[in-house]
Prior knowledge:
With about 280 residues, the chain is an all-alpha fold.
Amino acid sequence: MSGLVIxxxxxxxxxxxxxxxxxxxGSNKLFExxxxxxxxxxxxxxxxxxxxxxxxxxxPYLAGTVTxxxxxxxxxxxxxxxxxxxxxxxxxxxxxxxxxxxxAVFLLHDTLSPGGWLGVLLLSTGILALAADSLxxxxxxxxxxxxxxxxxxxxxxxxxxxxxxxxxxGSTISYICWVFFLNAFPILIIAVILGRGKYxxxxxxxxxxxxxxxxxxxxxxxxxxxxxxxxxISLVAALxxxxxxxxxxxxxIFLKETITPARLLAVCLVLAGAVSIxxxx
Length: 281
């Protein structure tokens, strides 16, 4: 893997952590999540006129991933209401490869290499260490933790759906842009109904953050896809897991979160576990 590819994937990880930091930094997490989705929608809409329409065979998968993303956004918003970025983001990103590996073993009857099982052990230890640290500090919130874990399951779900849909679409870029474009509408409708007019007043004061978050999300995914054309997918996916470290740093620098030695160790364990599963499993 060249130095340029490494820098691009690290940039992708930073952009991904950045849009999560934007959501965490807002006073209304649901509205922030909707603005992020809408920002990605705008960028995708600008690209769609220049792209081919995805093949009809992929349309059911587009509908499926849009439905799944409603729950993805709702669980993100709920998790960030009651937990630090460095806590919720690490669980969401770390538990997803853990669930994927365990699903492959126990439901699909795949086998894991010793390196893969090492990754499962490291991920499990890191997530439990995060929870134990929060419990020790009197800040453990079970509903929020369950929401973060549910989000990890949802990530696994839309990854499977999109993995199938993009192969049938005939154009990877077109499929991804349609995903970004369509994702915003259902969650926007939910926010407008639940907010009873408050969403648009909130949007007026924070629209720049929404556009920034959507841009970060769009760029993060684009850089990741480009990296996968230049280097082995497993290496790119592993390097992208550095986003948990960026999430911790952004939490400390911009959100004034306190990072204990135990939480620092937990984040490092999650990173090591995710890398092990993606490279050695």
